[in-house]
Protein 1
Amino acid sequence: MSILVMRAILVVTIAVGFTGSLLAWRERPKPGAVSLALLLAGQCWWSSTLLFRVNATSIQEKIFWTDITWVGVAILPVAWLFFSLSYTGYSKYLQRRYVLLALIIPALTILFGLTNEFHHLMYAESTLVDYGGESVIDRTPGPWFWVTAYYTYLLGLLGAIPLLSFVSSDLSIFQAQSIALLTGLAVPWTTNVLHLLGALPTSGIDPTPIAFSLSAVLFLGALTRFRLLGTNPAPIRPARRLLFDQIEDGLVILDMDNHVIDINEQAADALGSTPFDLLGRPVDDAIPQLEDLDETQSDRTLLRPDGGSVSLDVSVSEIRDTRGRTIGRVLSLHDISEYLRQQQRLEVLNRVFRHNVRTSTQVILSQIEYLREHNSDEHAAKAEENLLEINEFSDRIRTVLDVFKRGRTEFRPIRFEVTIRECLNEMETAFPEASIHYNGCEAQIYVDSIFDDVFKNAVENALEHNTNPEPEVWVDVECGDNTVEVAVADNGPGINDEELALLNDGTETPLKHGSGLGLALIIWGTELAGGNVTFDADDPNGMTVSIEFPILSIPE
């Protein structure tokens, strides 16, 4: 190649690279725009200094332009690497500390290049040789020259790896972009290797900047024809991570040896732990409830961590590579606690409804049959009593449904102390023979409106089913910073085992006539409000129902 042709190609290379750099810079802040602009600017610098070096006449001028060439050369591999990482979505590596770390060797390269005459680390010696009637400089590489060369190849390779995954992308535009970028890297890279091996007849002139003319054209084509920065895959990887981190379900990733290699916060919270404590542990150690998890299992299983109230539906999916080989598994933990609670509530409502309504209806029918033959005030009164029971039961059903409805909407605050006193006044009127003792709380606090029905049913149950000849109820309130606890104790017979099955097992057994919904409403209403309820039998008789409700903040 003649010097004249080389000059012409270098001018074209500079023009194309400068145009591409401006186009890339205009695309800020799109992923990779700044890095690509710096990459093309570095290529322009390298080509420009080579052009000036070729035109220089003295050896000192040629040495000067060779030394300052390293300003552009050193920035090229770093710009390429961070462009590739940004373009392919590896944004976690674009932090300042990684950039500064990658710039250490380029910074030393520029320093050693500009001060080579003092230490000769970049070039050991320099001489002028004749090439086609022109004087060109021939320089013997020093030790740092090879450090820079190997570092450049290393960063070039690291930057190429993420792009390779998009060559087979299902989206053709990503294929075209990636092929253009990789080809743009391969051409000057190969040219530089051949030059260093002495396989090109260029008499000491590095033709790599000339090879960049093709790279610049490819990069410019990628920017314009393939919308390199307008349509790029950068959001794909962060989006997948975002989905993994923010999906409502818990996700646990296992390797082939059933070790936890990744887990999101949702899964860790559901298991009552943290990702840090679970990562790297065998699944049967991290999640003992799954110690019998079969390696090929794809069915679903129910998990209750630590025997608590949270129920998780666990499904297992295999992770396969491109050859169809299993390389790991994903455990999906879906919280079905509310679904199971709703199912159990419907079951209780169905059984109680069928039991109470059917029993009362059968009694009414028998009374009507008797009244057809006998005009009896007693049987008429009995029929009326059962009709009133059905009416009362329907009122309880409406109350339960209303509690469910309120539990699905935003909390509606009520004044705690006012609600307590109004309820107790109502109970004193309804049960005049009973003694009600109250130890309240002076603080002016607010709780959710569901508390009204919960507390009313707790006191009513304590009085209505109290068989003691001198029924008594004690209501004690203890106010905390975030919760308020109300203890309702009585001297009655307590709650029988059949009804407590609703609390202990989450199931319901055949209930006695007229019972069931009061207890259920206490439990369900407290759960919907985010509180807790406990039942403790007193010695020698009686029962204490402790209801803990969150205190609501009221904006002033």
Protein 2
Amino acid sequence: MQPLKLGSLLPVVASIGWFATCIAYGPVAYADQSEGTRPNIIVIMADDLGYGDVGCYGGTGVATPAIDGLASRGLRFTQAYCSAGTCTPSRYSLLTGVYAFRVPGSGIAPPDSPALIPAGTPSIASVLKDAGYHTGIIGKWHLGLGVKPDGPDWNGTLAPGPLEIGFDDALILPTTNDRVPPVLVRNHRVENLDPSDPLWVGIKPPSTPHRDARSHPGALRMTTTGGHLGTIHNGIGRIGYFTGGEAALFRDEELAGRWVSESRQWLNDNASDPFFLLVTPHSLHAPRIVDERFQGVTKMGPRGDAIAELDWTVGEIVKTLEDLDLIERTLIVFCSDNGPVLIDDYRDRADQLLGDHDPNGAFRGGKYNVYEGATRTPFIVSMPRTVPAGESDQMVCTIDLSASFAAWVGAPVPAGALRDSVNVMPALLGKADAQGRSELVQQDNGWGSFGFRKGEWKLVRCDAAAMFNSNLEMKRTPAPKFALYHLKSDPGETKNVLRENQERANQMKEELQRIIDSDQQ
């Protein structure tokens, strides 16, 4: 049976023990705030997953039963976004509720980046922690570690990091899997690091012997066209260089299993507390090296296999909640950090093995730009007996989760914090007549392109005269300074109607500039 459109659902809200208060648009508290009855929250943020990559959004190449199951039991949003076309700024905005373009240096973080979020910055984790929630993050971080300007002390205390912005527990991939160092960080330390074998990390080759992709091309099991020619680990060239730390190095194939086992353990350990858990698997990010059990399970090659691995990850987390009898007390949000890219330097035939599968669905663009394919992503909210099953066309964004969750649980927000986050919790809960946000700024990686959606209209501004134009690979193509699209009639952004709507375009240009200029941090 197909889920009903939200507009056709009867305005019936389940009335269950702890959920006795109707949600309003401002901050709201539960009638019963005791720890045993407050809702838990899990956000699962995928990496480089496109709108059309999963079955419930029209994906045809890979079966995604776990993700589709979430959608069948909850709300599937058709106009949901991340705020940026690449991972670091998108994750920055998710955590802080602030557009990343307001913060200098918030593009894709290099291997030795200091923390992009200063210690003590209010975040989605800190506001929930202050409200009595136990908070954790498991998976990809890619927001820098350590103090400015020095950056990470890989052999010492890695702070500031997640714990300094409100997380109680962290097991993170500190950068991303195509960068060095290939280690995991638990709280403030590199996991399993042997002090007698120190880890050195840099963006320039070290003076000591090392194996890089330029000098040892025969050691590569996946070819690269030039961007990942640093130190080889596990047969893969990475961005940057490292030496030492042998006991701490991970095996790519085992990472998804770690995210699952750690999530299971964390949920078991915190089942009696109100909790917030952010799980950030990286499966689709290049290089796509999945667990052996998923290798070759799809016809789409490594990228398709990575989607299958991601779906398994989601399913295992849901199963854990069911086993702990927490599924009806836990809000699950499934989303993605940005849209898809097929060939991101590594050559794994992702572009050749698509068949009729379209990672973007009906949309144009992909990772690295600001077209709809870059920032409109799968977005599912599930909580049985609380969130109705159906489909919503309300506009929401991952940047809104911090303000929305704070309002939902009655958490105080420091003055001036979460400034770009909008409380869209009524829309996330599928409330009758609830409204999402009315406008949204989308950015690329800080290269000078913006998208500004207002109602049914989308203004695209390109300051660099060229923009990454598709999801096929990182290749810039010429683009006009401004373009205007009517998304309701042209969701694929195929027809620039700026000339026919000059007055509207000028108004939107001015509004976008005001937002960009307002109180830059």
